[in-house]
Every structure is written in C-alpha cells, then in structure tokens.
Amino acid sequence: MSDAQHDHESLIRTPKQLVIAVAGFFLVIVLGIILLVTFVTSSSTRGAGTDSQSVEAIAARIRPVSDANFTLRDANAPRILLAGSAVYAATCAACHDKGLAGAPKTGDNNAWAARLAQGYDTVFKHAVEGIRAMPAKGGNPDLDDLEVARAVVFMTNQSGASFKEPVEPARAVAPASVADPKSGSAPAPVNSALVTMSVPVAGPVMVSADSGKKAYDTACIACHGAGIVGAPKFGDKSAWSARVDQGVAVMYEHAIKGFQGKAGVMPPKGGSTLPDAEVKAAVDYMVAALK
Predict the structure, then answer these.
(1) Under 8 Å between Cβ of 270 and 89
(2) In contact, 133 and 139? CB cutoff 8 Å
(3) Which of 139, 142, 245, 272 is most buried as measured by Cβ atoms within 10 A of its Cβ?
C-alpha cells in the first residue's frame, strides 16, 4: 500500500521546490534564445536588397537613362567611327532585337518590307531625325551620321535589304607646295625630307601590366564574363580551345575588327574605342586565364 502511494506522489512537494522548478524552466528558455541569436548573428547573411543602400547601388539607380547602352567617347581623343555592328549592339539592339515600342525586329523581313520599300534614303533619314517612337539617332546624339548609316545597313541587310556599306569620305590632304605671299611667285615645292624630319615619329604604344584586365573590365566583361551572345566565357578552356588553336594573330584581328560567326556577333573592340594595343592586352589577359 505504501509503495503504490509513493509511485503517485509528485517530485515537487513544497512551494520552495515549485519556485525553483519554474525559475529553472525560464532560465533554460532564456539561455536557448541567447544561443540562437548568437548563432544567427555570428555569420553575415546576404540576400536581395542587402546592398541597396550602398554608394554603387544608389548611383546605378539614379543614373540617367540616356547614359545606358551608349559607348562613351573621350572628347580629347581622335574620333574613330564605329562599325555598324558595334553601333547596333550599343544603341539599336535594345529595341530592334526584340521589336520593342513598334520597332521592326532585326531579321524579320515582313516587318521591314514596308520600310525598305521607301528606299535607303528615307530609312536613313528616319534613323537620323527620328520618327514616332524612334528617337533621333536611337537616342544617342553622340553618333556620327556615318555611324548611323553603317548601323542602318548592318540591320537592314539582315532583314531583306542589300544596301551597300557606306564609305567614309576621304580626309583633306595638306598641299604639297607653299607659295611666297610677298614675291607673288609660283609655289615652291616642299622638301619632303624636311617635312618628315619635322614631324615627331610616334614610338610603339606601351601598355602597363594591368592594362589587359582594365581593358577587359571596360569592354569585354559584359559578354565574356557570363558567356552570352556566343562569347566564350572567361576561364572556360573548352569554349576557348578552338579560338586559341587559330593563333593569337587571328584572335587579335577578330577582337579589333569584329567577327560574325554562327553563334553570335563580336563587335569591333567590343563596341569600345580602346586603342588596338589595349584590345590586344585584353585578349592576352583572357588567354592567360586559361593556363
């Protein structure tokens, strides 16, 4: 009888034991919460919006729309006119690749038929001056008319046209003789040897050790960083093997002059205005990453 009674008795027999048990319960809960918070906050967590207030993120959000997709030019550098493929990739592709805002999609002969029927001059005029939702020069006033013409030919020739590539007009040549304004005599021939000696000869362009990476970050990373539009991805040996086998001279030529293959289009100099030496340095940098 006494053994059965002890089996049914509680472990807490006095008020003091009850207080101790309740306090111990809450102490365990508090310690558990402290340990959980310590574990969660001990390692940094990143997710969507983590860097939303950084200087770079804010600058990207407030950047003018007109700055997007345009190739920046150095106002003090000699003007180098871009090829049609480069102008198209930088300015026209945003709308004409997908046929946005009523723009005829590149490669859609039916969409271009009515426009091509108006003739090249009209199509070029609309491209330069703008029409309806099409802004003048695609919204990039920095483009030269010849660059617009090249982009028009590049785009329309993929859409059923057969326009000729516009030719850059010849630059004026300095006269070969100089007249004496006092004597009124006939112009005297210029000594070509003296002229040659008076003009400083530019030496080879030297590039710094890290110029290849800088050029890559400027012009190449947009496509080669992710391997888009047919560009071999940076560091992907299998994607680069066939190109490396062609030799560095061929890779230099394709990088500087542009190349159109089955998988995609490489605009000249990646759509930039970098000097040839820096473009070659970017090629060397990408090839070196494969070793």
Answers:
(1) no
(2) no
(3) 272
Would you say 165 and 151 are in contact if contact means Cβ atoms under 8 Å apart?
no
Query: For 98, which DSSP code?
Result: T
Question: CB–CB of 254/283 below 8 Å?
Answer: no
List the domains of the chain with CATH numbers. Answer: 84-156 (1.10.760.10), 211-288 (1.10.760.10)
Nearest of 278, 164, 262, 282 to residue 220 by alpha carbon: 282
What pLDDT is recorded for position 49? 60
Q: Measured between alpha carbons, how far is 289 from 235 in angstroms, rounded to an integer? A: 6
Name the token pair of 219. Answer: 């012009």
Residue 97 tokens, joined: 């690749």
Other CB atoms closer than 10 Å to residue 216's CB: what's the count? 23
Pairwise CA distance, residues 115 & 253, whole Å: 35
Closest CA to 127 of 153, 148, 141: 148
Kind plus residue range of the DSSP H or E element containing 260: strand 259-260
State the CB neighbour count (10 A cutoff) for residue 178: 10
Q: Tell me what percent of the residues of the chain surpass a pLDDT of 90.
A: 13
Residue carrying structure tokens 């490669």: 107
What is the DSSP pairing of strand 177-178 with strand 259-260? unpaired
Q: Which amino acid is at 189?
A: P
The confidence score (pLDDT) of residue 219 equals 80
Q: Which residues have C-beta within 8 Å of that of residue 266, sequence separation ≥ 6?
A: 230, 231, 254, 255, 258, 259, 260
Q: Considering only CA atoms, which of 91, 95, 114, 113 is closest in space to residue 105?
A: 95
Q: What pLDDT does 75 receive?
A: 56
d(CA 42, CA 265): 48
Residues in contact with 160: Cβ distance below 8 Å, sequence separation at least 6, in sequence order: 109, 112, 113, 116
- Per-residue model confidence (pLDDT) at position 107: 92
